[in-house]
Amino acid sequence: MKWKRAFFALLAVNIVMLASLLFLVFRAPKEAIPAPKATKGATFLVYASKEDVNVMINNYIKEKAKNGPLSYHAWIDDRVYLTSKVPIFGRQVDLTVSFIPEVVHGGNLELRDPDLSLGELRLPVNYALAYLQKHANLPEEVVINPDKSRVYIALANIRFKNGYRIAAKQFDLQHDHIVFTLTVPNK
Predict the structure, then answer these.
(1) Long-range contacts: 171-177, Cβ < 8 Å, 24+?
(2) Count of domains in the chain?
(3) Statement: residue 52 has pLDDT above 60
(4) pLDDT of the residue at 129
(5) Could you list the residue range(s) of the whole structural domain that residue 136 is in?
(6) Phi and psi dihedrals of 165, rounded to 5?
(7) How far apart are the first and last CA of the chain?
(8) Nearest-CA neighbor of 81 among 53, 104, 108, 103?
(9) Element of type H or E holding 96
(10) How far apart are CA 125 and CA 121, in angstroms?
(11) To bridge 70 with a disulfide, which of 6, 135, 144, 145 should be the other Cys (CB 3.0-4.6 Å)?
């Protein structure tokens, strides 16, 4: 009879430890959305295709993303996709999250309606976003809000080497109609 009590006590300890570990892994710090920075200069409309934006996104990720435990790749097709490999029990498992982009105030983008797959497993999106927020080392212009299942991209805060700034005007992926405003600063 004592072995049954010992077994259930050990089982309870294991469950508490596993729950605590999962809580710590998926807990993410709250981050504020950055305020847009004002730039004076000439403004131009730039029309781009999905292919053009894909090149720009991945060049920016290569340049700005910090070295960290999680590398990722992004591209635009019918949705905005983000893929990575996540180490789980010593194996690399594919993590794919896709979003619908929407232009919001100030020419910034909000990625909403996430769809998530971890290998063949479907997980609650807020846990995966919390994991990405904690481990992906995203550029400071990208803010993940796991509670609202949203990713905010502060395009207005991205400053290129030459001081140029961009802001989204239209982001219609179905018709491959993507329009940005490009501001060339006064020197």
Answers:
(1) 171/101, 171/102, 171/103, 171/109, 173/50, 173/76, 173/77, 173/78, 173/79, 173/101, 174/78, 176/49, 176/50, 177/47
(2) 1
(3) yes
(4) 81
(5) 2-185
(6) -130, 150
(7) 83
(8) 53
(9) strand 91-104
(10) 12
(11) 135
Q: What is the pLDDT of residues 111-163, one digit of tens each?
A: 888 888 877 777 778 877 887 788 777 778 888 888 888 888 888 888 777 88
CB atoms within 10 A of CB 29: 7
pLDDT tens, residue by residue, 86-117: 777 888 888 888 899 999 988 899 988 888 88
Contacts of 24 (CB under 8 A, 6+ apart): none
Helix (H, G, I), strand (E, B) or coil at 143: strand
Residue 60 has pLDDT above 70, yes or no: yes
**Spatial CB neighbours of 71, under 8 Å, sequence gap ≥ 6:** 65, 84, 85
| Percent of the chain residues past pLDDT 90, beyond the cut | 6
d(CA 104, CA 111) in angstroms, rounded, equals 10
Q: The tokens of 110 are what?
A: 């909000």
